[in-house]
Amino acid sequence: MNVTDTIRRALKERTTRFAFELLPPLKGDGAAAVFAAIDPLAEFDPAYVNVTFHREVVRHTRRPDGSVERHVARRRPGTVGISAAIRTRYGVEAVPHLICGGLSRYDIEDALIDMDFLGLHNVLALRGDKAPGETAFTTHPQGHAHACDLVRQIAAMNRGEFVDGEVAECHHSRFSIGVAGYPETHVEATDPASDLRRLGEKVAAGADYVVTQMCFDNRRFFDFCDRCRDAGIDVPIIPGIKPLADYRHLEVLPRTFGVTLPPELAAEVERHRHNAQAIREIGIEWAIAQARELRARGVPVIHFYTMGRTLNIARIARAVF
Fold first, then answer.
1. What's the rounded Cα separation, in Å, for the pair 99 and 108?
2. Which residue, 64, 101, 275, 315, is the most exposed by fewest CB within 10 angstroms?
């Protein structure tokens, strides 16, 4: 059962499923670290596990003759491979992220073909972030500038249509396509209305569901859902939650992700700024309260951002699911 079908079933049965997102291992670390992160969460029967995709790091070095050599590397390669390993080991649907940045349409097509061969029939289609060291987003000359174009390519492949114009007669992929939504607006968007139009374009291109950026105030999520419905966006919307776990998050999360921390949460963390364990407990309890309210409101899935740390997520899941 792909993720879209899982979401539909949860809506029909009026249940709420647990899901989470992981990073692929650092190059050289192997899969054991990822499995160790998943093990504490496996008992909660996750609907799916998302695996992030990370852009290349570009370095330039000067040769003895004065010319410049360009080096391209990824610190966290292996998104598709670790997704297949997760699906095989745990029997849970894995959702590799696929991004526009740094990839040509042909690179994307090859990745999708590999995923199809491996039985990975879910994908989260994203534009992706700026490459490390970039001041603005750039993409491959033969790639996509916007997530809606990536969605369009995946949807075309589901119809058997390839980049070079070939059409498959006997085998079509069947990818379930997720996209990102931003209750507080994407950090690069000029205004909420234009950001919502972008989301509408992704859905019109073939997206099956939306997963939101982390949100610490459920009212913002519910308002976002209302605005989406008013705009004609009628696919399921999955809320994203990240438990605050560190004092630095007061500054890092708003700056990096454009999210707002409720004043009462920020004040409570500030009061315990020198007590790391207390801050961790505050984050866990806040996320539990959020998740319980979301479950009471009938969301089909709650998506947790782990950043590779899952013991706090396990405590939240045990209290909610």
1. 8
2. 64
